[in-house]
């Protein structure tokens, strides 16, 4: 069963003036939106003229995956987003274009274990360019699908525009269906690669409208913590802890549930295991109207309330609203190796 839409890149493999590659790539991408078609894939046109890669000048082989050039890193990001590819290539001297070969040579892992389809064009349909590309793709660990498209300059173009015959449309659709099937079949072979997420695809979770309520909730929660520490009262300290609270101590222990945690806090406070301390809210965010996430610093203080070099920690707390009350869902306390004095 398909878990998500297959994403295919259609790479226009020529940058010459008056090139036909862009028109051909547009025609391939049009398959995704033709009426009456139930497509299992999305098609994105990737124009090498816009990518604008220099000739390969990376100091390390692409197989190493250590890219020194910013242009290569951007190309890696782009290529890594897709599940498969369609290479659109002219035929130059019984081979593909230099710009397309250069683009392939820049990367390695980003291509591996993914399918590739081919659309060639030329006086003989670009078949020799595609034969060369099949060898390159195989060396990169790609799976070249059998069906391919061979567009004839005399029969499948109207001037510079791509105007394929009906049988070419059928060949295109068979090729794309093959790439999509192989992309799904090869998915288990591809590890979840750490291709960087484009900035435009990374969400901002903070909800400005929810921030005031979240801030009030965190302030009330920290007031309870401070009151519990000042009075050595574990019940006051744990007053807003949920029944199934998750807790990580500064010493690496993890606990779950109010009952166990409160018993430990009672024992520690009876022994006065921790010195007097002061809590300070560092940052609050509200990813949802009923959720607050906060960084809270706890700093040891002396009898005059001044920060000392003793015990200090940074905590992350997650509070959730239920029935108009806010409860601690989880807390993680991390010791600060070198205490930093709080601002006065």
Automatic annotation (TrEMBL):
<dbReference type="Pfam" id="PF03358">
    <property type="entry name" value="FMN_red"/>
</dbReference>
<dbReference type="GO" id="GO:0016491">
    <property type="term" value="F:oxidoreductase activity"/>
</dbReference>
<dbReference type="InterPro" id="IPR029039">
    <property type="entry name" value="Flavoprotein-like_sf"/>
</dbReference>
<dbReference type="GO" id="GO:0005829">
    <property type="term" value="C:cytosol"/>
</dbReference>
<feature type="domain" description="SnoaL-like">
    <location>
        <begin position="218"/>
        <end position="314"/>
    </location>
</feature>
<protein>
    <submittedName>
        <fullName>Uncharacterized protein (TIGR02246 family)</fullName>
    </submittedName>
</protein>
<dbReference type="InterPro" id="IPR011944">
    <property type="entry name" value="Steroid_delta5-4_isomerase"/>
</dbReference>
<dbReference type="InterPro" id="IPR037401">
    <property type="entry name" value="SnoaL-like"/>
</dbReference>
<dbReference type="InterPro" id="IPR005025">
    <property type="entry name" value="FMN_Rdtase-like_dom"/>
</dbReference>
<dbReference type="InterPro" id="IPR050712">
    <property type="entry name" value="NAD(P)H-dep_reductase"/>
</dbReference>
<dbReference type="Pfam" id="PF12680">
    <property type="entry name" value="SnoaL_2"/>
</dbReference>
<dbReference type="GO" id="GO:0010181">
    <property type="term" value="F:FMN binding"/>
</dbReference>
<feature type="domain" description="NADPH-dependent FMN reductase-like">
    <location>
        <begin position="7"/>
        <end position="152"/>
    </location>
</feature>
<dbReference type="InterPro" id="IPR032710">
    <property type="entry name" value="NTF2-like_dom_sf"/>
</dbReference>
């Amino acid at each position: 069963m398909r878990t998500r839409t297959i994403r295919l890149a259609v790479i226009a493999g020529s940058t010459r003036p008056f090139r036909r590659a862009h028109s051909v790539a547009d025609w391939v991408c049009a398959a995704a939106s033709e009426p009456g078609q139930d497509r299992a894939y999305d098609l994105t046109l990737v124009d090498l003229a816009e990518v604008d890669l220099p000739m390969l000048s990376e100091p390390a082989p692409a197989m190493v995956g250590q890219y020194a050039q910013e242009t290569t890193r951007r190309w890696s990001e782009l290529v890594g987003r897709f599940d498969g590819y369609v290479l659109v290539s002219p035929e130059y001297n019984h081979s593909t274009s230099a710009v397309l070969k250069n683009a392939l040579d820049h990367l390695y892992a980003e291509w591996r274990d993914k399918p590739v389809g081919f659309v060639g064009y030329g006086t003989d349909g670009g078949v020799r360019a595609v034969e060369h590309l099949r060898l390159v793709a195989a060396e990169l660990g790609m799976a070249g699908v059998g069906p391919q498209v061979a567009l004839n300059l005399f029969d499948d173009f109207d001037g510079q525009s791509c105007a394929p015959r009906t049988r070419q449309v059928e060949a295109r659709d068979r090729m794309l269906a093959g790439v999509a099937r192989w992309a799904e079949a090869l998915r288990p072979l591809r590890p979840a690669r750490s291709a960087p997420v484009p900035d435009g695809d990374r969400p901002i979770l903070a909800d400005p409208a929810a921030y005031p309520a979240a801030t009030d909730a965190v302030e009330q929660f920290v007031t309870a913590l401070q009151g519990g520490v000042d009075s050595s009262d574990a019940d006051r300290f744990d007053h807003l802890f949920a029944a199934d609270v998750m807790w990580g101590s500064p010493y690496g222990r993890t606990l779950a549930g109010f009952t166990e945690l409160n018993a430990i806090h009672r024992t520690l406070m009876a022994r006065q295991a921790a010195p007097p301390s002061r809590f300070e809210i560092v940052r609050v965010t509200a990813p949802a109207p009923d959720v607050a996430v906060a960084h809270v610093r706890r700093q040891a203080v002396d009898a005059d309330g001044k920060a000392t070099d003793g015990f200090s920690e940074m905590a992350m707390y997650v509070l959730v609203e239920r029935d108009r009350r806010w409860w601690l869902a989880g807390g993680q306390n991390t010791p600060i190796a070198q205490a930093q004095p709080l601002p006065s």
